Amino acid sequence: MVSGEGAPRLRVEVEASRPGVPARRIAVTAPTAASTGTVLDVLGAHLGLVGAAGAVQARSLISGAWLDRSSPVGATGLLRGERLSLVVGLAPAESPRPLTRWSDWRTDTTAATDGRVAVNRPPRTAPPEPATSLPVPARNRVRRPRRFPLGAMLVPLLMGLVLGVVMRKWEFALFSLFSPVMVLWNHVEEKRAHQDEVAEFGRSYDNAVAATFDRVREAARAWADWTHRHHPPPAEVVEIGRTVGPRLWERVPGDPDFLHLRLGQATLRAPVTMREDLAGAAPSPDRPDYESAALVDDAPVHVDLRAAGQLAVRGPDGDIDRVADWLVAQLVTLHSPADVVIAGVLAEEPAREWWHWLPHLATDLLPCPPLAADRRAADALLEAVADLGAARRAARDSRRRTTGSGATLVVVVDDRLGPDPSLLRAVCDHVDEGICVVWLGRDARSVPTSAPFVLAVGKDGTHAELVDHDGGHRLDVAPDRIGHSTALDLSASLAPLRDAADARQARSLPERLSLEDLVPDLASPAAVRRRWESAPVNRLVARIGVSTDGPVELDLGPEGSHALVGGTTGAGKSELLQTMVASLAAEYPPSRVGFLLVDYKGGAAFKDAQRLPHCVGVVTDLDEHLTRRVLQALDAEIRRREELLAGAGARDLTELRSRIGEEAPEDLLIVVDEFATLAKEIPEFVEGVVDIAARGRSLGLRLVLATQRPAGVINDRIRANVGVRVALRLNDEADSHDVIGQPEAAHVPRTLPGRAYLKVHRHVTELQSAYVGGAATTGVTAAIQVHDLDPTAFVPAGRDEGGTTVLEAVVDATSKVARLGRWRAPHVPWLPALPAAVPAATLSARAPTAPLSAVLGLADLPRRQSQPVVTFDLARHQGLLVFGTSRSGKTTALRTLAAGLMEGAGPDRLQLYGLDFAGHGLHVLEGAPHCGGVVGPDDPGRVDRLLNRLGRLVDERKRAMASAGLTGFDDLERVSPTPVPRVVVLLDGYGGAAAALERLAGGRLMTKLERLVSDGPSVGVHFLITADRRAAVPSALVSVITTRLVLRMAEREEYALLGLDSSAVRAVRLAPGRGFIQGSTEVQVAVLATGDADDEHRALLAVAERARSRWPDRTPLLAAMPPSVGARELPDPVTPWVLPFAVGDTEVAPVALDLSDAHALVAGPPRSGRTTVLDGLAVAARRATSPVALARITARRRHEPEPLAWDVGPVDGHDGAEVTRALATISALVSQGRPVLCLVDDADALPDSTSSALADLARRGRDELVRVVVAADNRWAARAYGGVVPEVRKSKLGVLLAPEVELDGDLVGVRLRTPLERLGPPGRGYLVQHGVTELVQVAQFDDDGANDREGPSAAVGALGT
After folding, report:
1. Which of 658, 751, 870, 1321 shows its CA 20 to 30 Å from the CA of 43?
2. Residues 927 and 997 both lie in one domain
3. Cβ–Cβ under 8 Å, residues 348 and 321
4. What gap in Å lies between CA 957 and CA 954, rounded to an integer?
């Protein structure tokens, strides 16, 4: 996976400034052969020197040398940390020369392409600290003088005297006298010898003491030399760093002075031990003061930081900063960055300024910036250090190696920044894990409790006190310090250095890398075309980054494998995927590789990549339903490729390409971002993609799975099928082990996005992945890149940081080349998801429909890789049930079908009716000529009339088909001489209809509706019904209408009740109009316009307008019951006794009172229209072709004019004589053969005699040509037991106005039902004849009604007067 070297390029970090602009840390990348002038022009433009190209000059603030614009930049000696001052001018005042950092170094020939210089540390012999042990000279123990031997002298004398006396030999006594002489002589001699011995011993002791003092002083001098040598003063340390002397980084772990920090100078006692050679001998009180001889003035005072772990320095501001700079200077000058790294919580900007360039910064060790300038960053840094300590302790306990475990981390914490004390305490708890802490502060109360050493700097900064809390000692110290400018010079000298023995720094990786650095002319259309034309047929290699050995390539071709990418947030995972896709797109044509991009986060990762000509689809915001769709589509693609291989007799895609060339399928790279989240939320996705990985490798399908959290997702099947693994920064070592089997990825610094580890088989390579989100470069400066190292760097006003990114440039270049037509587009296995709005006109153009059929929507069949148009055909499907919750698109489906049906057939072949029990969405159809009416729950009368009309139609067609021996409606259409229209009823809201209709007329309407739904389809009456839940529609109807469309339901359980596959709808999110038809086929219901309610309304009105212009005829309207009717609106009577007088609700058409063989009663309360009924009957009778004689008898005087000229009357019913004459006249007319219609008004007020006479007339009239119509109060009529009313009631014919429904039916022998129409308007009532009741609206009399016929004959008139 690691290929050859790239072109020589210089990448160096410098500090650049120009007049008026602060210095900024900038990384410059350029070919080593590029001219220095071109690089300076780009750098100047980055700093805001607009329009100064060709005149930008640069001077080193370190060496004072001017850069030669004409020389190659690689020969200028430009090193890391160089400080350049840019000005605009034609030529510098001094001659340019190569840059020098040190007097005896030629950096233009020794520097590497990263601006660093390798320093070799010669072997060092570090003697241990001298420790001398000297014996204390002891005085010789002189024998004490003996006492005079009196006994020895007297005893022999006494014995001689005794013998002389006893033995009488006085010679014995004389002889005994010699003993005292001898004793006395011996005593004198011994005393003289003792005196000589005392004198001799005194002289030897003095000599020994003097010699001991000399040895103590010599040991002190040796120790002083050693400590001065190993703890050099500031001037010497700075000189070592400035000159890169041989003592640079001389200390190594194991040396006695490793991590010794010199604090200052003091008078110290050399480590000389005075021992007493005599066991148990106590020092003599008069022993010489050897300790004073061991004191060393101006001796270096140091602290063994590695052993102590912590050092606290407190004192005034400024003083502690200089002391801290001195401590850090020792660390970075005397210790290699391979052994000691530093991090700092620094409150002062000057300290951070020189820290930035130190090669010892713990950039590679910590996952966050090693310098913290605010409290938030300080807490993050301390937390990272504590985590590092915990990881090292855990690794030590488990005997595992951790990344960077050999480097000691020294953390400088400035308490003035206010870091969290608990985090500082957590860091201090791990000082035994290669972590040391130097604390700085002003307040003694803030000193960490665990600090064993505290250096308290005095107010004047010239003296300090070192407190050893463990030993309980205090020492006055003259503290060492260095100035800020000295520290800056030191950092400038150390900035470009690296330890030649440090493998990590010897082959360091860039912190930032553009894909343009790896692929020459990446975004050039001409270069893209050349690469496409020469792209290898059997290799698919993506160049993704660079390692220490050169560019890194991923082999995704036949010899390669699937890939797994792991990386936490901010690690560069999505950027790596973009780089992979862009690299392949720039190298291979769309006919060679295609991309299917799956992003669970919402598509942001592939926002630009989806415009590549190679991209066959982008899948975002997956749920279980869409995941299932993805897997079905990929499974279909595998089957397609298997069929191609089988047809060509090829074993794999490589062999197929060798046979048919570019016609062979392209490789398909399936890139899945956020794989772990997707797998946890949709578990079956894991098995699906693993199966694809196992089956699709030889077929050219490649998987790239990317995840933030690999734990628990990377199972054995994935490991077995995914051979390439890339680990960017991960949260912990467990995640790192899951991806690459090593812990290194858990220790990638957070400041290095894109740093990764690539594992192929068992080989692991560290790399820096390329970035395609940066600005693309063009023109002569295309290969030169500059960017700020500090994200908060000042950007000059007016400078544009935007522009085309590298990825966008690749997209533009590849799109231009693809438009040449030389290469075919990749096959699209993943069709786009169904759109949220599908215009019906577009679908009709794709799949024209036959008459009496309509476009319903667009189906999605991922298993067949197709999206066919779904049509609804009345003859084939008969009916449709649409289920869905509120705002799911049910009404839209009905309106789309209605519009489609109206576009294909005229009113002579199609009639529409609407039952709108939902949201009044169907009323807009009423303007179409096909629509007979749309009714809803607010007009139950019209609902009843519609159901009655349809019921009669069904019965008529059944009889017609039965009489003709036909078996189906198609046969009836074929044999009928005139078109027989199909009737379509749109019922929107079956649940609402059932709730409303079951309460009306005892459920009679609901029964009618269910019967029509069941019986209608066989005779051409079709129902398209919507419902919000399965339980809303009876099972009997569900079994009749087998075509079902299921939209979004309110409850998941509803899908199962409707027979849908649970796996197809689990966790599905259905947009309005999205649903399933005939099981699990997903469909998007078509719309007439855009889906917007107003647009849809206007579109439907336009459909109705086009229909009216095409077909002038229209379906009979389902009219509403009028509140009033004029007499002229009624037809003339056909026969004398069948008299039109009102409009009935059955068809909202005129109805007549049939008096052919019966009398009639008109009953109702006052002002209900009884007199109007009588007037209407009179006017109708006068209009008859064979007019009848009209007689009027009333009990009350009429104030308004009579409606016409009566043949008899009007007669006052209270005038008996007048009544007698009128009855005689009527008898005379009858005898002449003239039929007579006698109208009796206000019968409840007639005298009994008149009523009885009229009753006789009514009894005779049944056999004669006399018909009596009596108007009376309904309540009075119910109580009347004699007279004309009971006689007339026997006919069971009449008109009941404003009736009391429960009572008034008895007047005519029927039982009235509660009316569905409102009984409020005057003249509204029931017509009851032949046992049938019908709601009627009585016609109002107008003046013209009486003048359209001739008046009565003279004879009749004479008789009536």
Report:
1. 751
2. yes
3. yes
4. 5
Is 888 annotated in a binding site? The answer is yes
Give, as one character, the DSSP assignment of residue 1115. P
* Residue 732: other Cβ atoms inside 10 A: 15
pLDDT of residue 687: 75
Helices (H) and strands (E) in the chain, counts: 40, 51
* Residue 521 CB coordination number (10 Å): 16
574: annotated binding-site residue?
Answer: yes
Identify which of 841, 974, 985, 979 has the alpha carbon closest to the alpha carbon of residue 906: 979
- Number of structural domains found in the chain: 4
Are the C-beta atoms of 1189 and 1208 separated by less than 8 Å?
yes
So what's the pLDDT on residue 1035?
87
Give a yes or no: residue 926 inside a domain. Answer: yes
Separation between Cα atoms, residue 163 and residue 66, nearest integer Å: 126
Write out the two tokens for 537: 């047929």
On whether 571 is known to bind a ligand per the annotation, the reply is yes
Residue 926, both tokens? 């009423």
Extract the runs of DSSP E, i.e. beta strands, from 324-392: 340-345, 371-372
Q: Are residues 869 and 902 in the same domain?
A: yes
From the first residue on, what is the mean pLDDT of each consecutive set of 10 residues in the chain (1361 residues)?
50 85 85 84 84 82 85 85 84 73 58 75 83 76 67 75 74 72 77 70 72 85 89 92 87 90 91 72 67 87 92 90 93 92 89 88 85 91 90 77 68 91 91 92 87 90 88 88 90 87 64 82 87 87 87 82 87 90 93 86 75 86 71 84 85 81 84 79 74 80 85 74 87 86 84 88 88 72 74 42 78 91 85 85 84 91 87 91 92 93 92 91 91 90 90 92 88 88 94 88 87 92 93 88 90 84 72 86 91 90 92 87 85 88 89 91 91 90 86 85 85 88 89 90 90 89 85 90 90 91 88 81 89 90 48 33 23
Locate 587 and state its tokens.
């190298």
Question: Is 797 labelled as part of a ligand binding site?
Answer: no
Task: Please name which of 493, 597, 520, 519 lies closest in space to residue 63, comparing C-alpha atoms.
Answer: 493
Is residue 442 assigned to a domain? Answer: no
Closest to 822 (Cα-Cα) out of 581, 592, 655: 592
Tokens 């010898």 belong to residue: 193
Question: 1302, exposed or middle or buried, with CB in 10 Å at 0-12, 13-18, 19+?
Answer: exposed
Q: Half-sphere exposure (CA, 13 Å, Cβ side) for 614?
A: 33
- Report the candidate in 710, 702, 747 with the shortest Cα–Cα distance to residue 597: 702
Please identify which residue in the block is written with the tokens 């947009």.
1071
- At 1229, which CATH number? 3.40.50.300
Give the list of residues 6+ apart from residue 387 with CB closer than 8 angstroms, or none.
Answer: none
Q: What is the pLDDT of residue 879?
A: 92
What burial letters (b/e) apply to 1229-1262, b meaning 16+ CB within 10 Å? bbeeebbbbbbbbbbbbbeeebbebbbebbeebe
> Is 264 within any annotated ligand binding site?
no
Asked if 977 and 917 sit in the same domain, the reply is: yes
Q: Is 885 annotated as a binding-site member?
A: yes
Range of the domain at 976: 838-1110
Distance CA 1139, CA 1182 (A): 10
CA atoms within 13 A on the CB side of 72: 13
CA distance 428 to 271: 30
Q: What is the pLDDT of residue 1?
A: 36
1189 in Cβ contact with 1235 (< 8 Å):
yes
Residue 486 in marked binding region? no
Task: Tell whether residue 1196 is among the known ligand binding residues.
Answer: no
| Any domain includes 300 | no
For 449, the 3-state DSSP assignment is coil
Distance CA 1185, CA 1135 (A): 7
Question: Any binding-site annotation on 146?
Answer: no
The CA dihedral of 1333, 1334, 1335, 1339, to the nearest 10 degrees, is -120
What is the C-alpha separation between 1220 and 1243, in angstroms, rounded?
A: 16
Binding site annotation covers 1124?
no
